[in-house]
Amino acid sequence: MKGYVKALILTIVCLAILIPFASEFPDGLEKVMETFQLEEQESSWSGLMPEYTMPLIENPYLSTLLAGLVGIFLVLGAVFMLGVVMQSRKDENL
Fold first, then answer.
1. Total structural domains in the chain?
2. Which of 14, 3, 22 shows the shortest CA–CA distance to 72?
3. For the chain, what is the radius of gyration of the CA atoms?
């Protein structure tokens, strides 16, 4: 097995274990909104994984874990596809 595949698998396993322990405190933008006492407007769409959870799964740990894993694979897939497109364009220019 190639080194980058091992590193990828190790990263996914570590993230899968650590994601559910993410901080409950607000991030930077949420903190600024709290400081200036601004209220977030209700959006027309809540997204695929609102608040980094899977709405159909009731167990909060499992819901957050699966949302993190789905997010990892979505990003990896997008980066892979971008790489394929960029490589094919590079090959066309040669």
1. 1
2. 14
3. 18
